Amino acid sequence: MCGDENECGVAGVMSVPSPEARSHARQVHVRGRAELSSPPDRAAVTVSVRSTKDSVNDVTNSVTRRLDYILQTMRQHGVQEEDTAVRKHVRREGDLYSMQTEVSVVFSDFEKMQRVRSVLIEKLDRSVCVGEPRFEHSSQCLNLLRRHVCAEAVETARLKANDICSILGQALGQPLLVREEESQEWGCGQEGPALPLKLQQKAGQTLVCASSCVCVIFELQPKNSTKKL
């Protein structure tokens, strides 16, 4: 037994911390941030065909001939059927019949898209309207961007923690916690003058940027420890 309450009190204060407390004290908390951008991976093009004739049969035949050529051109360039959609609309305008057909095509190969557009414009001229490409990001493309920017933020945090350990004369141990605290996405394409642009320049105006901020807790270890990250 202790003969003095004060001595017992002091002894209690100076007791050895538990292993859990020591482990909690030997940690380094860092944050890492990263920002990446991604170009579009898809382009949608709409080709419109319109005709006005005296009868439904005449207007249908007129549009069908050009529609068949458009679809044949797509097949010859390896465009998959599931990437093509056709919409038709017929209406009567007084004594005449008007028919309009739209072929919407999604391309993942931008050079192939340019070749198809060139063939249709050259062969069909003004009998069809070949629209300008609309660049888009697929859900797979956006998910990949999110994963990459988060991983880049974690790597930034690891490098920062490693620098801190070097200053303190410690070794960087295993990560104990990784938490993404913030993520954002926004359009970050470069706005340019209203001039004719090349394909790459148009795609560059449709970039998507993403940022990620993570908090990572690493274990601190003695310099001679073999258990390093």
From TrEMBL:
GO terms for biological process: immune response; positive regulation of canonical NF-kappaB signal transduction. The keyword Nucleus applies. One of its GO terms (cellular component) is nucleus. InterPro entries: IRAK1BP1, SIMPL/DUF541. It is found in: Cytoplasm; Nucleus. Keywords: Cytoplasm, Nucleus. Pfam families: SIMPL. Its main location: cytoplasm. Residues 18-39 are annotated as: Disordered. PANTHER family: INTERLEUKIN-1 RECEPTOR-ASSOCIATED KINASE 1-BINDING PROTEIN 1. This is Interleukin-1 receptor-associated kinase 1 binding protein 1. It comes from Electrophorus electricus.
